[in-house]
Amino acid sequence: xxxxxxxxxxxxxxxxxxxxxxxxxxxxxxxxxxxxxxxxxxxxxxxxxxxxxxxxxxxxxxxxxxxxxxxxxxxxxxxxxxxxxxxxxxxxxxxxxxxxxxxxxxxxxxxxxxxxxxxxxxxxxxxxxxxxxxxxxxxxxxxxxxxxxxxxxxxxxxxxxxxxxxxxxxxxxxxxxxxxxxxxxxxxxxxxxxxxxxxxxxxxxxxxxxxxxxxxxxxxxxxxxxxxxxxxxxxxxxxxxxxxxxxxxxxxxxxxxxxxxxxxxxxxxxxxxxxxxxxxxxxxxxxxxxxxxxxxxxxxxxxxxxxx
Length: 308
Ligand code: ZN
Ligand code: MN
Ligand code: MN
Known about the structure:
The relative contact order is 0.14. The chain has one domain: TIM Barrel (Alpha-Beta Barrel), CATH 3.20.20.150. It is an alpha/beta fold. It is about 40% helix and about 15% strand. It is globular, with a radius of gyration of 18 Å. Helix 4 (about 85-105) crosses helix 5 (about 125-140). The chain binds zinc ion and manganese (II) ion (2 copies). The site of one manganese (II) ion (MN) has 4 residues, from loops.
């Protein structure tokens, strides 16, 4: 397995459709050369999904062990809001989150990535508290789970929480089983939230702040998306790599940053069923990597295949 990672050099992939089942997502990812990928574990617009069959789980696991060197990231259902004020929405959110955590654990998924939540007028402070309370309940209900709960940094659209590193820090500080917590940085969200990673200076400052406030050891994954909207717009519109307001420079800095060699990098850019856009975006990113940076590879402390 590790030899495969070294030969491919970069942990790079994209979000894959689960039409045909979670095992089909692995096949799609492998077919375009992903060494890591993201998927949903059920229909992402519904509260409930049909259960995974033992057969599907077995097929998925076999494909992963044969052909997927890097970690798998699962993205949560869009309906979930762990900060919901409405009691029935909060209840459904927690139930669906738990169901998805269970699916992840059964499949051996490393990272469950979720949007922290939207406060819907109650204020950020209340929202942050509510998110942490929900996570404490969920972790209590799923003792000993290996899958990490991964907070995704947001663009801050509407009343979304998580557009400042401080929000992520505050949530983690309020979570009792904090060793289960990790963070995903989405480059489009980061830029839209006002962190200017398009210049060398802004890039260095952003990650210095991240290191000081959250800590690099919490970083589980990157979502690599360019941004259609300008710096600080707080509007979340993904664009193809190099085609948006971040531009190639920011991505080149990230692709060559030795701190992030072991961090999976996953595209969530617009695409059609033949995935040719993913192929092109991955080619652009791979070409940015300076050859001498590609070799040395060690899995991060947050994931080690075979040691889960
Ligand atoms: Zn997301
Ligand atoms: Mn994302
Ligand atoms: Mn987004």
